[in-house]
Amino acid sequence: MVDHKRKRGRKPKIPVSETLELDQNHTPTIPGSVPGPSSSPTANSDDVVFSVSNVELIDPHHHHHHHNHSQSSNHERRRRGRPPKKTKLPSSEPSKAIRAASPTRLLLDKANNGPTASLISSSMVAAGESVAAAARVVPAMDAVVKVFCVHTEPNFSLPWQRKRQYSSSSSGFVISGRRILTNAHSVEHYTQVKLKKRGSDTKYVATVLAIGTECDIAMLTVEDDEFWEGVSPVEFGDLPALQDAVTVVGYPIGGDTISVTSGVVSRIEILSYVHGSTELLGLQIDAAINSGNSGGPAFNEKGNCVGIAFQSLKHEDVENIGYVIPTPVILHFIKDYEKNGAYTGFPILGVEWQKMENPDLRLSMGMKPDQKGVRIRRIDPTAPESDLLKPSDIILSFDGVDIANDGTVPFRHGERIGFSYLVSQKYTGDSAAIKVLRNSETIKFNIKLASHRRLIPAHNKGKPPSYYIIAGFVFTTVSVPYLRSEYGKDYEYEAPVKLLDKLLHEMPKSPDEQIVVVSQVLVADINIGYEDIVNTQVLAFNGKPVKNLKNLASMVESCNDEFLQFDLEYQQIVVLQTKGAKAATLDILTTHCIPSAMSDDLKI
């Protein structure tokens, strides 16, 4: 950092408040290049001076300050340490401002043995505290590792093979018990994972212990004892408040060494997690999260981890929106793994509900003016609560917490959050007390919670896709990765309407139900005229409904009728002679270099 020497010796020609702004952002700028907010260093700037020597100086090792001028000129702020003098300071005032802000820059140079202590005057309690904090946060940085992963994704469109392998790098950090946390999407479909510590030249091979796709967290460990020498694990902190400073540490693109970005907590709410397509608690921060930052920790001012960076909003109208997985979700994942020896997921109440904001609607349901709640629209038939709850029940409270008419519950001081937060705090297999209003009567239920299964799963839990081939017809099951493979990332617009409707609205009728489609027809003499069938659902085979792919495969394999008849959607049918179809399959497999007519999971 080039600028200390210039700033220490010279009397600044620019207004004081401006100097402070530059210090806080740590950007070497040309004097006078930034218009200062106050044009004369008078009574107003003595206010600014004190706001800097207040404890509100955010711990400097964080390379950041989330101060803005509205805060610094706000007279109602809480002051700690020495009360401000109301008299105007003598002419030494500007240099004092610089002195107050200098440790901010010098602390970062601790490694170069910069003259930190000599600059701290006895009255500067704030900077004194921040020195201690700086010393405390240095080990936390060393706990951040770079994760190298080689991925081999299944090819969902050609399910008998995999795609070409590719490698990625992301971040992770060490937690207690010789474990490392990173993002699930950093290690999905992994074939090899390696870790590199900061300041080390060795990559250590890691073992994946658990992958939590819904919450986008994965847990790794390293066998080699050498890796654990001199590493102190990260401590977790509490859920931060709005406007708390956070620092994201990781290894993003743009260089090989560790990188630190910083910002404040902008929002805390239920977010949609892109990777697991679920909705869980999340933090929104304004620090830059770039690719490669994934899996890196977000620290608070005390150097405790308050979250894991995992996604950012890329949109033409948006700047600097990064998302962080907060500690409640991380600790849920860790406890779940410790309790069950594996990741079991987050429970979901298997119901769809509607808001009860309309007064006439509430009246017709027999709700009293003081009662609030949400109305159940549909219930997932495979969920345990389907035995107890009924459509048009009004859910009044969950575990003793009253639910408002818009489906929110109180959260911390004066905030509100969707009630699914209460459900996701539980573990699968836990029971919860639910109070409902049915026919104007209040009924209490104890419901056992389970994780939700979708008809079209959002991910295949790392398993290769299932397929079955007969006479060139490739049957497979529909999942979100399959739709993405067939229709690209805009599959929500490109895929057939029937499949999208099932993806968004359909509920499974039985726990093992799957949507089976003819993915494509490998052209051969036997299937002339059927070449154009693609991604069309199979509803029945020889008059029997098709529940799932295994069910279809076993029916076809054991069929001794003269014809095989597949009923597809829109009343289309495919008819083949049984003997000829089974005989032709082998040649078609050979032509297309396909090793087997069905995937391994169907052979059992």
From TrEMBL:
Residues 31-46 have a biased composition (Low complexity). The keyword Protease applies. Residues 1-13, 76-88 have a biased composition (Basic residues). Residues 456-601 form the Protease Do-like PDZ domain. Keywords: Hydrolase, Protease, Serine protease. Residues 1-46, 62-109 are annotated as: Disordered. It comes from the Eukaryota. The keyword Lipid biosynthesis does not apply. Belongs to the peptidase S1C family. This is Protease Do-like 9. It comes from Coffea arabica.
